Model the fold of this input.
Amino acid sequence: MIISIASDHAGYPLRRSVCDYLTKQGHTIVEGGATSAEVPYSYVLAGQKVSKDILEGNAERGIVICGTGIGISMVANKFPGIRCALCTNEYMARMSRQHNDANVLSMGARVVGSSLALGIVDAFMSEGFDGGRHQTRVNDIKEQEKDLFKS
Done:
């Protein structure tokens, strides 16, 4: 799978761990954002990069990481067609895929440790969308986006 991953400077070390982990699993990574933990980089730019990658067809799923995961998830969710889920455990990641068809995972590097983060990534990457009654709600989200984001 092609996965776009970006972070701000606070999320840089965790992003590198996640990228290495997913690469070893055979995924193709489209990486962006901060180039180190020491040089400030805006979570806004990182969230925009991943969202655009998905919407332009350059990636199938995305992962965004900042200090808490909150700001970067807000940025990603401003894009019609992006369903970004801020997850702090594996259960949330599984449900975000099964029930919400989330296409972007958000995590906070200052909130989850490295081993928990990899478990969250596993859950997010391994789950599919259940459809059925959940499809109705995802369709409702899409209709809301059409109403709110008319061009």
Observations:
- Residues 2-148 form a domain with the Ribose 5-phosphate Isomerase B; Chain: A, fold (CATH 3.40.1400.10).
